[in-house]
């Protein structure tokens, strides 16, 4: 995995905001219209649409328009970027702590 990824950076920036995380959490239950989503947040529709556009531009959601209704759908595959990055970090740190534990508990290491 590349150390710097504009895609991963964009996903983390999008998820840094609590409103956008709440939208992602809500869409985890299923597709919802923008109007229904917006009612859950104490802000104007234009302000809410900025959050929707940020999530959409970073690939976390897709919007589908049918007539006058725009429906948001969570792009679960995009969350794999975060899962993969966290799994890599977890593997690195578990390896380090395992080596530290072995160093501390292995009697052969005392002579060093």
UniProtKB/TrEMBL annotation:
<dbReference type="InterPro" id="IPR036390">
    <property type="entry name" value="WH_DNA-bd_sf"/>
</dbReference>
<protein>
    <submittedName>
        <fullName>DNA-binding transcriptional ArsR family regulator</fullName>
    </submittedName>
</protein>
<dbReference type="InterPro" id="IPR001845">
    <property type="entry name" value="HTH_ArsR_DNA-bd_dom"/>
</dbReference>
<dbReference type="InterPro" id="IPR011991">
    <property type="entry name" value="ArsR-like_HTH"/>
</dbReference>
<dbReference type="GO" id="GO:0003700">
    <property type="term" value="F:DNA-binding transcription factor activity"/>
</dbReference>
<keyword id="KW-0238">DNA-binding</keyword>
<dbReference type="Pfam" id="PF12840">
    <property type="entry name" value="HTH_20"/>
</dbReference>
<feature type="domain" description="HTH arsR-type">
    <location>
        <begin position="1"/>
        <end position="94"/>
    </location>
</feature>
<dbReference type="InterPro" id="IPR036388">
    <property type="entry name" value="WH-like_DNA-bd_sf"/>
</dbReference>
<dbReference type="GO" id="GO:0003677">
    <property type="term" value="F:DNA binding"/>
</dbReference>
